[in-house]
Design goal:
The structure holds two protein chains of two kinds. By secondary structure, chain A is an all-alpha fold. Chain A contains ten helices and no strands. In chain A, helix 3 crosses helix 5. Chain B is of the alpha/beta class. Chain B has two domains: 238 residues, P-loop containing nucleotide triphosphate hydrolases (Rossmann fold, 3-Layer(aba) Sandwich), CATH 3.40.50.300; 177 residues, 3-Layer(aba) Sandwich (Rossmann fold). The chains are: A mainly alpha, B alpha/beta.
Chain lengths: 261, 513
Amino acid sequence: MRSRRALGALIVGVPLALALLGPLLAGGPGPRTASFTLGGGHWLGTDFVGRDVWRQVLLGGRSVVLVALAATALSYLVALPVGLVSALTHRTWLEELLMRPLDVLLAVPSLLMILLVAAVLTPGGVGLALLVALVNVPDAARIVRAAAADVASRPAVEALRMQGETWWRTAVGYVGRSLTRTLAADAGVRLTGVLYLVATAAFLGVGVEPDAADWAVLVDRNRTGLFVQPWAVVVPALLIVALTTGANLLVDARLERRKRT
Amino acid sequence: MNETKPVAEIRNLRVEVDGRAIVDGVNLRVVPGTITALVGASGSGKTTTGLALLGEYPEGARVTGDVHAPDGLVGYVPQHPAAVLNPARRTGALLRDIARTQVRHLPRRDRRAAVHERVLRALSSAQVPDAGTMLRRHPDQLSGGQQQRVVLAQALLLGARVVVADEPTTGQDALTKRGIVEQLAAVAREGIAVVLLSHDLDVVRALADEVLVMQDGHVAESGPAERLWRAPRHPWTAELLAAASTTTRIEPAAEGDVVLRTGHLIARHGRTAVVRTPPLVLRAGECLAVVGRSGSGKTTLARCLAGLHRDHDGEILLDGVPLPRSLRNRTRRQLASVQYVFQDAAAAFDEHRPVLQQVARTAVRLRGVAEPDALAEALTTLAALGLADDLVCRRPGRLSGGELQRAALARALLARPRVLICDEITSGLDTVTRRGILDTLAGLVRDRGDLSLVLVTHDPATAALATRIAVLEAGALVEEGPARQLLTAPRHAFGVRLLETVARDRPRGRVPE
């Protein structure tokens, strides 16, 4: 169990450190050389326009990681209050008002939605984060509501109401707290989904410049030279995979520990 | 009967968790065809001893002593049988799965018939009356008593020679209880050893051949049931037996003012009306017992009064002022005036916070007491109910059912209620704890003078505490009147039946075969 946590921390730590600290270590751009070469002072070779891959990797994590983390956090920021309110209210119309519009959103495929909006607005990094958060809100809100509805029907909630307890203490202090396990498990999966979405969007050119230093863009642009110079594709792809796998392992280990205590 | 070779035996068992012995020096001989009962308060080590026969111990336990039991041939019927039945599969499938493993030696074409025959035999041994329909149902479509029989049938199918039944009658009404007693007696007649873990002395008395009285992990006294009842040697046994019998009735000196009054109440679940009662009146200082079998609507009636069941017609007036239907619309004063104690105390507490803090919140929220004062008051109230300081600073998971029930009572009392509604708060408790809680309630009513109780119960012994009794059957109020009159001369057939069942459940000693 402990080894799983250590493994998770290691796996998630490498891409996270690269993403956050990379830009500080990257240094200035060197002279461009031939495309897709190996050696010659570039220990990961050069990319499709002859830039140093290692420098691109150092620079390219921040956008992916920050956008994904921000989008996940944002989607919960909206989903939690919506889900909690609709689970705890006894007014059917309020629940309908909060949840039905989300169902409509849920029916639209998320990537299609992002591509459509991007075609009209051409969002930057912040816009992409908002967009990805938006498409994740319906799922997250439904999970919060379903889990909270289960907790809200327990006698403990009735007992709290009998004590005249405040809405905040009942909803957040008890119901919210009882949801942590479910939400932690969901967050692990959701982060993976968000990373996939952010990377896909970047891969398709949404929210980033076509030659930007971005792991997803690197994978996209350099795949033409995959068999000549594999590192330019393999390294950023591996980093993205490591980030999602590591995050899931960490969450699992954390849940395991909570269960035992 | 002691000449028979025991089928399982425990010698000098000691189970220690975190340096604390939960069971110490326990000896137990289980003889085929007899019923051995372990009795004692909750937390006295009954379940730990019973599970030791299965080779199961609490996590991280240090175990010393000898346990000899036939490997894999000990069946366990837990207190909540629903937890061990797969809800997604029909009863028939659950039983056939087990039977199928035992017919491998037969030729393939005979297996199906053999499986069916084995399942039916096990069901009839477990006293299942209508096996055909039972097999087609899912576990959640069965009553608690039926689920218990299915679990028992599973154990019998496996060829269990010892069956450990953990609190089989807890929370069951008098009629269901009788069925369970007959079922266990029938199992014992088939030559299977039954170990009965129970604090229900009526059931133990009706069934047990040998009784072990447990107290704090020790065996206080053991011996044949008949001798134990006639002449208990240990003071604890005497207390346990005495607690089972007597109840003091609450009789207010003078007729108090009307506190709570209801109109014609009709409570609904969805479209169906589940409770219809004529106007009811509750006076200060009296205790009204609402009795009836499970499913008769007594809890729904109580929940209407408490504001927990909004879907009803008819007003509920507190001191002549209508109470809002829902708790959420009641003022703090109204909330404090009518308090409710839940049946399942463990589920009614927040598992993350210490009990003391939760109890104290009532005073903070409903009476505006400052936090430190509320904590001090909570400690005093809890101590008066017999809960020590270090105990209540723990989280609910570390307290036993009886302790939590008392904490829940303290939580309601801190509101200084005028009407206290108790929903089955004594079911699932051993006789001494039950006695303690009932005495506490009687004392509160006597001391406070203006406190009125509503006791929802299916236990006529608990109802004996009441000044007045209302009998519900299938949602209708069939009889209501002074307890004295109702318990001696019930007018309605159901009241008579309930009383008769109680009387039958307490035979004067069992004739040994």
